[in-house]
Amino acid sequence: MTEGRLRILILGGYGTFGGRLARLLAHEPRLTLLIAGRSRAKAEAFCRALGGAAETVPLAFDRDGDAAAGIAAAGAEIVVDATGPFQAYGEAPYRVVEACIAAGADYLDLADGADFVEGIGRFDEGTRVRGVAVLSGVSSFPVLTAAVVRHLARGLAHVDSIEGGIAPSPYAGVGLNVIRAIASYAGREVRLTRDGAPASGRALVETRRWTIAPPGRLPLRSTRFSLVDVPDLRLLPALWPGLSEIWIGAGPVPPVLHRGLNALARLV
Questions:
Q1: Model confidence pLDDT, tens digit, residues 193-210
Q2: Final residue of a domain: which of 109, 135, 161?
Q3: Which of 21, 55, 91, 116 is deepest in the core (most CB within 10 A)?
Q4: Closest CA to 209 of 220, 199, 201
Q5: Which residue, 89, 116, 135, sits at the end of a domain?
Q6: Could you tell me the residue range of the domain that residue 73 belongs to?
Q7: Same domain for 81 and 167?
């Protein structure tokens, strides 16, 4: 262990989102970035190309294997799970979380799987005993949406409904695991709130169209959004009791691709 450096283990560290995180942290000389994934060769190639002031260490790590041994051997102080898809983590989805708590390492992930994020609260007591932090869903959904709602709700006596969506740039790489995550719930029933009561809707089948109008600027073009299964649908009603409705969508482009996804989802 290098003296004075904070050791951060990034699972999926050479992937789409893990790689972005590593690039953002690479300038910091007080860090040791442990770039981990199933392929040590890919981790080594990524570290060679990364540059920056941080120390980088390539590691072979299979989250479906002995996670506890891998985390302990790495000497990680913080573990970031940027792998996914979190919707397909199998019968023991929290093995990395449990390994981090046992090792005394802080944990956070970029999960957007509703079941996974909703269930993370079961570890609250254990983390308090061990004195570690476990943060799930540190991603566009639900962290950024919750922050936006909090900001917009300032000064309001009551929040009646929440409608939101994300419209990614066509130039933004999404990664294979994002596609796998979407495919796992496309066309299936997802839990949400309608008319103040628990309800359901079909993911990527229900659509809404919004024109985004930033204050003081010309409106953006009208964008089609499709319902997605994200943690917000389950978690935000607990933060704002009394919601009559919550609906969250995604507006991928180009439109022809989006309509193709809608058509395929209807076949499920």
A1: 999 999 999 999 999 999
A2: 135
A3: 116
A4: 220
A5: 135
A6: 6-135
A7: no
Q: What angle do CA 11, 16, 19 make, to 5 degrees?
A: 60
Distance CA 162, CA 232 (A): 10
DSSP per-residue letters across 69-136? HHHHHHT-SEEEE----GGG-TT-TTHHHHHHHHHT-EEEE----HHHHHGGGGGHHHHHHHT--EE-
Do 149 and 212 belong to one domain?
yes
Residue 1 located in a structural domain: no
The predicted-structure confidence for 38-70, as pLDDT tens digits, reads as follows: 999 999 999 999 999 999 999 999 888 889 999
Residues 148 and 256 in one domain: yes
Alpha helices in the chain (DSSP H): 16-25, 40-50, 67-74, 95-103, 114-118, 124-130, 145-152, 176-185, 232-239, 255-266
Residue with tokens 């991603």: 139
- Same domain? For 171 and 124 the reply is no
